[in-house]
Amino acid sequence: MTPVAIIMMIIAMVTVWGGLVAGIVNLARHPEVADAEPNPPAEL
Amino acid sequence: MANATTQSPRREAFGSRNVFILSAIGSAVGLGNIWRFPYVAYEGGGGAFLIPYLCALLTAGIPLLFFDYAIGHRFRGSAPLAFRRMHRIAEPLGWWQVLICVVIATYYAVIIAWAATYTWFSAQLSWGKGNEEAYFFGDFLQMGDVGKTGVSTQFVPQVGYPLIAVWLIVIIIMALGVKRGIGRANTVLMPLLTVMFAVLVVQSLFLPGAVEGLNAFFTPNWEALADPGVWASAYGHIFFSLSVAFGIMVTYSSYLKRKTDLTGSGLVVAFANSGFEILAGIGVFAALGFMAQAQGTDVSGVAAGGIGLAFIAFPTIVSQATGGSIIGVLFFGALVFAGITSLISVLEVVVAALQDKLGWGRVRTTLTVSIPVALISIAFFSTTTALAVLDTTDAFVNAFGIMAVALVAVIVVAWLLHKLPVLREHLNRRSSFKVGWFWMLLIGALAPIVLGYLFVSEVMTKITTPYEGYPGWFLAIFGWGMVISLVVLAILLSLLPWSRRSHAKDDPEYDEFLVEESYMPDAETGTVRVPGYTSKGARS
């Protein structure tokens, strides 16, 4: 493979798969709230 | 699924957010990811295509995905009901999407049936080395010429029986419901698909010539970026690839729990879909590089997309490669799984719409919807003229169905009903990734411009040259006639009144949701009153 093709391949993998990993990490940091939980107080 | 203690059954729901995400990925990852993206990218400048592709993903694909999620989750209904709850005049948009899904389901199933048959053929190299093209069109499809014979009724058993089997499997999944059917199918098939495809890619990379294929795929042609056609094809591809704007994401997000991180989930779905496309590009072009080397030509000589790639190029690779049968089984098996998870999402749009409209239970609605759709599918696509009908309906329903409804939907919602602030507010309530005025700008301005451009250019091409040279009467029925009748039928369907048993009139869960979220009560359901509001004042 030519260097420019290798660079484009790496950029494609990093942006798209990196975006996927970032998305999964972001979601893991915001776990699902159970529907059964009581509502937080509306006014603090 | 009926709850004995209440009059109306509870709305079905996905078991968890992760099952929803897997199902949404299952819907988005379809045949297009595997057989369309690699060729579109290759044609659109190879490595340089990444730039318009990422632009399209970030400025149109993801914003439209959020748009669909917001509609389905805020109005908590199938496409027609969600649009009706937004505003009465928007209801035809929902029915239009439902009818588009009916058309797509009929032909999508037969491609799965072909792929399933070819999974079996791959194991035995049934086509005979060097005879792949003639075998597909002649022996397998027994293709007739619509120009000479008209639409045929001659049954082709090797296509027809697998097609019936595909429908039986899909109907069983649908009848089991959202949680036990769709959710479970995706939980099993999506990890399996990923593993199979990863093995396929690794195996392709070890074929001689694979590196040349990757070189052809990733070498950038920067001049392509100056061509507006390349940008249009990037936006068009992202648009079809993510399954936005034909009701699927509206329907699926209506099955989400009330407090769900919508945008965070959407980002995972969008990037997973694109991640699969990059993987498919690598796998497909590595295999094409091998094929080019084996035939002593350039990669440009063997590069193909769509049916030509799957049913002619891949069988050729399977015949020539050592361990080709394994490649074939993995490739066609991946097509089957990717196709089934997409087909069930397409059918769910129709089933959900009728469930809401009629207030019927799951099994009854599934059978009422799926059996007629399956019969139409078998009638048109198990005959000798299947390919011509498939090719034409696919091209027309994509351009003048999906793209047209998306264009009309963004204009109606953004400019006529001014609902973008409502949707934005709903997205931001629970989501980790907040959307702002820029999102409204992308949906309200960029999306109509891009979709409008794509739509007009499609109209021009289809009017000036008869599609694929098919006869005029044939295009008038299966092309123009079909797409126009979808609009007419959609308007007629939205004129039908909703009965008192339908979910538009009787939906305590929706009322409860509105109270909990402090939204105005719905004008039509209104079984729960909120002090201080009257149902006549209900707007948002």
Q: What composes the largest sheet of chain A? A: none
Helix count of chain B equals 22
Taking the sheet with the most strands of chain B, its summary is: none
Distance between the termini of chain A: 61 Å
Specify the overall morphology of chain A: rod-shaped
By secondary-structure content and strand pairing, the structural class of chain B works out as mainly alpha
* Most extensive interface, chain pair and sizes: A-B, 26 and 36 residues
Structural class of the secondary elements of chain A?
Answer: mainly alpha
Q: Beta-sheet strand percentage of chain B?
A: under 5%
Order of helices and strands of chain A: H
Instruction: Output the number of helix runs of chain A.
Output: 1
Shape type of chain B: globular
Question: Would you count the extended β strands of chain A for me?
Answer: 0
Identify the quaternary structure here: heterodimer
CATH superfamily of the domain at 17-392 in chain B: Hydantoin permease
Poorly predicted parts of chain A: none
- Mean pLDDT level of chain B: 93
- Secondary-structure arrangement, i.e. CATH architecture of the domain at 17-392 in chain B: Orthogonal Bundle
> Distance N terminus to C terminus of chain B?
31 Å
